[in-house]
């Protein structure tokens, strides 16, 4: 084992760095990988010095935004200059609200004296504190006010700085297009009054922009240039952090030795800088990136481990000296994580509990939930299951108000695609399942099973909020009730993909049932990908072995219970990669699932409103394109599809040149439609901003669709069905499939009908027409109507291949 760590200067001894100075109160280091999104989470200091970090919204979420320029209530005694200094001192202690109050007061004082330059600078500082408090929109408003003032002056360097700050704020919010625009403007203005300091800051932010766009080579070039210019400008802290950023990018480019060299240089430079919060945060980030190198450089694991823990110990010492509990919580927590991974549980527990106390002392939920989660893992490793469950519950409760911001940060972190909050909920669920298996009382055990399902359900809701980047999901969930008891012929299948098994939780009319299938998630993922690729090939039966294998894993283990209870409808809540495949096309060796069961899909049981369709009052609006527009092929059978709907239900139509977004908006405002059918090209991608439906003159984004159909969301009679014909998602794109399932929720519709891939225009028209024909029967549910339509195509020699009929998914309400 490594020797105990000590704080002090860094010396080299071969490949390892030992730490000399005062004895650490804690023992030796341990560790292995931390995901790189953890690297960026602690950086709550000036954005210039910590660009590759979680959005500031993940730092501390304050749900009540402070109106701009209402400074009178918070003005303190003192000059504007003294207020600016007090704000800077508070910020360095991590007291962001105090810093904000001082800087807003300073802006007010500058405004009173007519100092536009001072007011602009105070507003930029206020924006910095506001972002640290999680108020990104408010921060941008402050910066826009600062920009208006800066534009009045002749200081081009400051003007460029404010533009850069706005670009950086948009980077923090992961809005890359406006970020790129502001950074380009900053570059242009900076040329009028060259400044090495301004140029270095812009270069660093351009590197972040490239990193977020996965343009790694360009990002590394920008960070390398930033280091050179920062040295020229004497911005040593910026040079340190640019080196750390370059280290992260080098690792992502597959060059761990270069990454290590960047870190060594950053560490050598950082140790000579004066004590500050910036320095403490710099040590934490260096320690985390050293740790991330462990899997890539196993031959020098011990030296890397020493450097990682040594840097964290330096951060602990500086944070204690500055009384900065916020940064201290991260340094202690990550040091505890090193001990955890080296199975030094007692030391890990001590450090983790200290981290929890530090986070609680400054009301920092963004770090507190991590250490509560870490405590839960440690207790679970000691087989203290009930204590561990209590800690998991605390972590989930702490995360609840901020999970959208945290999940967004994790999913879109500049240097990582790893999900950060999913393991928390799935570990919690796994432990609840373990607890259920140890419980003899069946009713109590069922309670643990339901709690496990609810833990995964909480993550699914957060995932949808993340995809759509707003809180609409919670607004919908607040009006819905969980369905735990169903009609006598319906079962809900809730598969959960754990690393080494599939857990099948099944809600049956008679109660709750659970079974596990021992199979690694990597094997499941590969099988799903193979099935998805092959089932789209209309000329082969290559899909069949994969369809059978997936049936054996997902349906066969519960087949006996389904038969015993005479189940005819399956409601599936797919997890992860399972969202990308049509469950209807799974095969038992003799027949498809759809030939035995009607199938509906829902992204979550608390996201579904299972109420029957009122066919007597429903009013139809059918829209679509038949002509080739904007480079997309014609859809000639859409006219036949729309005519069929009109013959069955009457209603209104918008075709081709009439299918325009303004016209659609007008119709939705004036007509109380129950079903909206859109037959057009569409695409759902990983990024909701890249998802669209094609109109005659443009593309209807998901946010625009939400605006158009948002009228239905809170009215007494919501949109019953949103049908999207001729749309598609990417092969294997889990998040795109999530968007496909969530679009009905986003639009405020009880049900949605959509397709996983683009299918034959004529086949689509035939299936859709039969679906609506079956739906006229009041005794037939939507799920059964879709089943009958799919079986009709399956019986057609031309369209019997599942590529034609299986991609149609009925989403959410199946009744």
Give the termini separation. 62 Å
The profile of the biggest β sheet is:
8 strands, mixed
**Proportion of strand residues:** 5-15%
Average pLDDT figure = 83
Query: What is the CATH C level class of the domain at 620-812, in words?
Result: Alpha Beta
Would you report the number of β strands?
A: 15
Number of helices: 31
Low-confidence stretches: 1-77, 404-419, 477-481
Shape: globular
Radius of gyration of CA atoms, rounded to a whole number: 29 Å
Query: The CATH topology of the domain at 620-812 is what?
Result: Rossmann fold
How would you classify the helix and strand content by structural class? Answer: alpha/beta
Q: Percent helix among the residues?
A: 40-55%
- The appropriate CATH architecture of the domain at 620-812 is 3-Layer(aba) Sandwich
Notes on the protein architecture:
It is a single chain. The chain is an alpha/beta fold and 815 residues long. Among the domains are: 58-192, Tetratricopeptide repeat domain (Serine Threonine Protein Phosphatase 5, Tetratricopeptide repeat, Alpha Horseshoe), CATH 1.25.40; 620-812, 3-Layer(aba) Sandwich (Rossmann fold), CATH 3.40.50. It contains 31 helices and 15 strands. 54% of the residues lie in helices and 11% in strands. The model is unreliable at 1-77, 404-419 and 477-481 (pLDDT under 50). Strands 8, 9, 10, 11, 12, 13, 14 and 15 form an 8-stranded mixed beta sheet that branches. The chain has a 5-stranded mixed beta sheet with strand order 5-4-3-6-7. Strands 1-2 form a two-stranded antiparallel sheet. β1 (10-13) and β2 form a beta hairpin.
């Amino acid at each position: 084992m490594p020797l105990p760590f000590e704080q002090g200067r860094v010396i080299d001894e071969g490949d390892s760095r030992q730490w000399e100075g005062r004895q650490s109160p804690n023992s030796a280091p341990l560790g292995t990988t931390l995901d790189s999104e953890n690297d960026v989470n602690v950086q709550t200091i000036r954005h210039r010095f910590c660009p590759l970090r979680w959005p500031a919204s993940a730092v501390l979420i304050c749900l009540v935004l402070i109106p701009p320029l209402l400074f009178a209530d918070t003005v303190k005694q003192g000059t504007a200059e003294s207020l600016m200094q007090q704000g800077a001192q508070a910020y360095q202690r991590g007291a962001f609200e105090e810093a904000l109050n001082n800087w807003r007061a300073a802006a007010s004082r500058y405004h009173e004296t007519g100092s536009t330059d001072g007011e602009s600078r105070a507003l930029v500082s206020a924006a910095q504190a506001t972002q640290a408090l999680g108020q990104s929109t408010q921060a941008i408003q402050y910066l826009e006010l600062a920009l208006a003032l800066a534009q009045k002056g002749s200081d081009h360097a400051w003007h460029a700085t404010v533009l850069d700050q706005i670009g950086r704020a948009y980077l923090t919010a992961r809005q890359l297009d406006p970020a790129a625009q502001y950074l380009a403007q900053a570059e242009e203005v900076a040329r009028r009054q060259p400044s090495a300091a301004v140029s270095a800051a812009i270069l660093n932010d351009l590197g972040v922009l490239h990193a977020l766009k996965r343009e790694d080579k360009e990002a590394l070039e920008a960070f390398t240039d930033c280091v050179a210019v920062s040295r020229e400008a004497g911005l040593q802290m910026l040079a340190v952090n640019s080196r750390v950023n370059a280290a992260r990018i080098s690792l992502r480019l597959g060059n761990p030795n270069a990454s290590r060299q960047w870190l060594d240089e950053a560490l050598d430079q950082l140790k000579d800088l004066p004590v500050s919060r910036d320095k403490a945060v710099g040590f934490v980030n260096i320690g985390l990136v050293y740790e991330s190198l462990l899997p890539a450089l196993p031959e020098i694991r011990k030296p890397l481990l020493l450097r990682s823990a040594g840097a964290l110990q330096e951060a602990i010492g500086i944070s204690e000296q500055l009384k900065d509990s916020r940064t201290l919580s991260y340094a202690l927590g990550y040091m505890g994580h090193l001990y955890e991974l080296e199975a030094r549980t007692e030391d890990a527990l001590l450090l983790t509990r200290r981290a929890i106390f530090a986070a609680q002392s400054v009301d920092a939920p963004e770090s507190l939930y991590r250490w509560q989660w870490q405590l839960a893992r440690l207790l679970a490793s000691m087989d203290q299951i009930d204590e561990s469950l209590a800690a998991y519950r605390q972590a989930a409760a702490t995360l609840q108000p901020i999970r959208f911001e945290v999940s967004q940060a994790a999913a879109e972190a500049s240097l990582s695609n790893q999900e950060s909050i999913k393991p928390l909920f799935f570990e919690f669920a796994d432990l609840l399942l373990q607890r259920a298996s140890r419980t003899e009382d069946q009713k109590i055990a069922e309670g643990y099973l339901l709690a496990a399902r609810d833990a995964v359900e909480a993550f699914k809701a957060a995932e949808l909020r993340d995809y759509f980047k707003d809180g609409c999901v919670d607004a919908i969930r607040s009006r819905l009730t969980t369905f735990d008891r169903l009609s006598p012929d319906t079962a809900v299948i809730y598969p959960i993909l754990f690393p080494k098994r599939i857990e099948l939780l099944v809600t049956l009319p008679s109660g709750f049932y659970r079974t596990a299938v021992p199979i690694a998630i990597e094997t499941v993922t590969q099988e799903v990908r193979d099935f998805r690729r092959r089932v789209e090939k209309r000329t082969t039966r290559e899909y069949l072995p994969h369809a059978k294998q997936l049936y054996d894993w997902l349906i066969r283990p519960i087949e006996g219970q389904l038969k015993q209870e005479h189940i005819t409808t399956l409601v599936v809540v797919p997890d992860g990669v399972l969202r990308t495949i049509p469950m209807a096309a799974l095969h038992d060796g003799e027949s498809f699932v759809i030939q035995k069961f009607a199938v509906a899909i829902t992204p979550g049981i608390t996201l579904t409103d299972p109420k029957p369709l009122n066919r007597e009052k429903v009013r139809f609006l059918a829209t679509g394109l038949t002509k080739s527009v904007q480079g997309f092929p014609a859809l000639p059978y859409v006219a036949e599809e729309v005519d069929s709907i009109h013959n069955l239900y009457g209603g209104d139509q918008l075709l081709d040149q009439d299918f325009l977004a303004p016209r659609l908006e007008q119709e939705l405002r004036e007509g109380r439609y129950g079903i909206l059918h859109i037959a057009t090209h569409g695409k759902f991608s990983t990024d909701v901003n890249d998802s669209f439906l094609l109109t005659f003159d443009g593309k209807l984004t998901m946010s625009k669709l939400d605006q158009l159909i948002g009228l239905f969301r809170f009215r007494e009679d919501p949109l019953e069905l949103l049908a999207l014909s001729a749309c598609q998602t990417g092969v294997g794109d889990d998040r795109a499939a999530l968007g496909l399932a969530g679009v009905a929720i986003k639009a405020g519709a009880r049900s949605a009908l959509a397709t996983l891939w683009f299918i034959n225009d004529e086949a689509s028209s035939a299936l859709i027409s039969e679906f609506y024909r079956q739906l006229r029967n009041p005794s037939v549910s939507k799920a059964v109507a879709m089943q009958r339509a799919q079986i009709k195509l399956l019986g057609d020699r031309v369209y019997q291949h599942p590529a034609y009929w299986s991609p149609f998914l009925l989403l959410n309400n199946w009744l």
